[in-house]
Predict the structure.
Amino acid sequence: MVSDLKVSIIITCYNVEKYLSKCIESVINQTYKNLEIIIIDDGSRDKSGYICDYYEGQDDRIRLVHQNNSGPGNARNVGIEMAAGDYIGFVDGDDYIEPDMIEKMLLGIVQNDCDIAACGVFIENESDNADGSRFVSKAVNIGSFDESKDASVVSYISKEEDNTNMIINKEDMMSFYVNENGSEKGIDLANTVWNKIYKAEIVKNVKFQNRKYYEDIIFAMSVLAKATKAVYIAKPLYHFIADRGDGVIQKGYIREVLIDRLSVHKEQLQFLKDNKREDLIFPLKYNFYNKLLESYDEEKRLKKEANEIYIEELVQEIEKCDEDFYRIYHCDIAQAKARNKMQRFLKHRKIYNMFLK
């Protein structure tokens, strides 16, 4: 019976006292009850630790660890090592989930004999609206399905007004992950671990990286390489809190992000080579350079507040795509608009900058 299967939900938190109670209660109150709730307090300096202590006393399914701050990757690794469930999922301490998220995703996995279930996401931004509402919420499907395009890559299960389920076969999982929203097939298995449930056996021996940013990218690729089949549930079931109002961007933040991003990109390329997926190298580079150019645009629009050192480093990295421009910007997922934009940047940067708004 499905109800006999235990699901370990790993909640990691660091200084999220404003959001943590809502997060934990959304997990405690799931319609699926056979849960092991592992909470890792990663050295919080606010009241998050006390909040965790309170809920540990309220629900005997909770296992709590207080530890020195070691970053989200290491905190999740601790949770994985502790997990005793048949399936494992992750929730960030400042997010929350729909009451039936675990039930829907577990049913999708079991009924279709899959290793992974992924779902759509609500993106919520803190708001200063005059009506006093705290969040602006937007439903985003991390993945979509167009029946008119290459239906052979998925097994179509069911379609309702607000819900589309599909099976993604092993051959296509890594392709959809790398292609992101640039793929005409329209399925995106993003890096995010929090909108997914995994069969425990495929994650138990996989580690998140010990880095400040992008710690989940190689984890995501490693797990996809081990999985045989995934089910995608288009209905948004996870609430991701973006751009928290109390978030602070520290000096040097954007340069640290760039450094980690470049390092991870090299590891991604090597991962594809090691796993004999050279066919995905140029799509990966295509999305990578497009994102660097987006970062350049965002920074240049700051004008006087722009970090010129960071901009110059971005330029140096983006210019590297010129060495293999044709194969990158004529790969299977390349779009003419992105290709033309990059050409303008590489050949006529002063004019390109004039039209940034």
Summary: The CA atoms of residues 14 and 44 lie 5 Å apart. The chain has two domains: 2-242, 253-354. Confidence is low (pLDDT under 50) at residues 128-136, 141-162, 182-186, 247-252. The longest helix spans residues 253-274.
